[in-house]
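Researcher: I'd like a candidate sequence for this fold, 201 residues long. If you have to choose between options at a position, lean toward the conservative one.
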């Protein structure tokens, strides 16, 4: 059974999708904790499911690296990355922070993210807006390994969506999210079953 830690900053729609999947005994992964950098609304989903949660606020630390060390310590308290013999995965599911380099080195390649574009196109925080500004006729979502760059890690899975004429950022982002949730759930399933070997990407 793959142990999951899910990191969020907002409403937690991807977290909800993973919680729903993990509620099925046949799903080969279990969420053991949910972490955030703020009082995220999505923490309520963890509470409703009886999943432990924690908040590690960057503002409580002198720098990003100190915050990253505290975040890593919180994950280890829940058994994530503590035992090298035990399979675990950290899922950044809407965490709106660039993770510090030392944190990334500690957990990668068992550290994944979803991004609302077809990487390497449109990295960064405004991917949907950037795709529209560039006149893209197609975009999508990427699940990738987090490395020390910004959205530069190895691509695991992608799904494509056509950009509709005259579509605005909010509507396009919502259609991308509709692809993102099942793609993340299935990607985690394949990682848990060994169909995807993150160390070999």
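Model: Candidate sequence:
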């Amino acid at each position: 059974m793959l142990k999951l830690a899910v990191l969020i900053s907002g409403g937690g729609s991807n977290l909800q999708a993973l919680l729903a999947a993990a509620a099925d005994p046949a799903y080969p992964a279990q969420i053991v904790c949910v972490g955030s950098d703020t009082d995220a609304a999505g923490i309520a989903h963890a509470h409703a499911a009886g999943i432990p949660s924690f908040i590690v606020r960057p503002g409580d630390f002198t720098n990003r690296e100190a915050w990253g060390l505290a975040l890593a310590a919180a994950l280890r308290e829940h058994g994530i990355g503590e035992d090298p013999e035990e399979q675990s995965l950290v899922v950044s599911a809407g965490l709106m922070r660039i993770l510090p380099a030392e944190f990334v080195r500690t957990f990668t390649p068992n550290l994944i993210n979803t991004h609302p574009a077809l990487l390497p196109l449109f990295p960064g925080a405004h991917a949907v807006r950037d795709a529209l500004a560039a006149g893209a006729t197609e975009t999508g979502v990427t699940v990738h390994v987090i490395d020390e760059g910004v959205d530069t890690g190895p691509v695991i899975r992608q799904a494509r969506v056509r950009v509709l004429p005259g579509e605005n950022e909010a509507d396009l982002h919502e259609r991308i999210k509709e692809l993102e949730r099942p793609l993340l759930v299935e990607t985690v399933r394949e990682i848990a079953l060994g169909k995807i070997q993150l160390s070999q990407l």
